[in-house]
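Practice problem: predict the structure.
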Amino acid sequence: MSSLPITIDKSTKGSKDFFTGGGGGDRDSLKKSGGFQPASYTGESPRLGSFDPSRRTSYSDRGSQWPKTIFFKVRDRVKKAVFNGGTLEDIDNLFLEKFPEFPKESLRPFNIVHRESKVQYEIDDVEDIYSNCVLEMRRSEGHDAQVKKRSGTGYSGIEREKIVLVTVGLPARGKTYISRKIARLLNWLGVPTRVFNVGEYRRNRLGANQSSDFFDPSNPDGQKARLHMAVAALDDMITWLYQGGRVAIYDATNSTRERRQLIVTRCQREDIQKVIFIESVCNDPKLIEANIRETKLLSPDYASSDPEAAVKDFRERIKHYEKAYETIADDTQQYIKTFDVGRKVVANRITGYLPGRIVFFMMNIHLTARPIWLTRHGQSLFNAQGRIGGDIELTADGDNYAHLLAQWVADNTPKSESGDEVEVTVWTSTLKRAIRTAQYIPVPKLHLRGLDEIDAGVCDGMTYDEIAETMPEEYAARASDKLSYRYPRGESYEDVIQRLEPVMLELERTRHPVLIVSHQAPLRCLYAYLMGLDQEECPFIPIPLHTVISLTPKAYGCEVKTYKLM
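Answer:
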């Protein structure tokens, strides 16, 4: 059976083609048409603006049968209720029965999540209520801000101090590549991280078409302008850190001791003590040339320029920086030096949990392009019954997919420069349905517990309807916060991300094509990491059955294709 490749650009990650499978519209049109503020978005909402009875009748769970089981949520507290009223005031009164500690005058409008589109909006009509919906009462913005200030955001480890990572190196040495990789890792792990690229400030404020002479250290006007851009990025970085950021990456050449001291002094003045320099040293002419041609020619600095003229100008820019470049030699400073993008890594005075993880991560990254193939196991007996979890066998369709997958791998294995097929690595979870799906691929397999499906705990083997009927509070808690919700005696998506970190590091290290046969939750998390998506998007990324998702990491992005085999 032939497969149809579909190329997906990362910039369209919210489009209907991949993330919704249908529908249309966009976030802005939803805001304009309905006037509500979406909390998350996966497609066009059937409900836009005021209530439309003709639209409501198309949903079986929004029929006219009353009473309806609903759930009230206040922060991390959820209570079940039965609603049989007809007005918004009846909703308020029912809420006060469940939460009598709230004075009536303090009540604010409830938020409800549209069951199909996941768009969150303020409820303005009781007809919006459907069975097992969650009505969330948000506290005042001032209260939430105080809680956020006390507790911090994202990563909940022992260390709470702010961290500033400062890149150092000549142009075309992979500094931005390293910065983005680190930011992607930390954000995926729940650590609020942001890159402040001084080059982007220059392009946005001074224009992109600056010749190499602009970077000449003997050009006083150019030096002054570049200093202003560096300070502007530094100001924004400090502001962001004090608005809840945790790790800031100051991405620039920072090639002189004077410039680096400017950054350290400013951070110390703002009581930010953890400043770590990351110097990228590259002496491999092939790597430098490849970086110039593969990434710098795509930069806005050389848009519509003749490629050879652009390469010549950029080499002149490098020569200007070489005149003033001073490598890090002060062993009293905290720094990490990487040579030839990971060939050798030197760490000096690096202490702390997060900095240690960053060092280990940098020891595993490289620039070798290779495909990463993600696929769920073939259809299992539980899939056919709509049940979650379990460790059961494939259906006949699932076994058929296993045969098709083996043929697809054989047909799509890339060849080396000599014409030989390159080695393919196959990883599966330890569950039967994943192992059986890879059984016809004639290469050694590695079975990893980190790739197992999310542990549904006491809900293992149940359908979602059964959970809603027998454990309504759990059903509502999961519906209201799918990322953080942990099944009783089971796992949450956040737990899955944590146990996938060793798998991700090994994936970064490998230089051969990798086929990963796993399950929906872990594949969602890996896809989010590789595509640089927010944690909050993980639980809603569709990973369909009997489909291969091919991702090829590039210097500044990821090429994605999907192949539907059945």
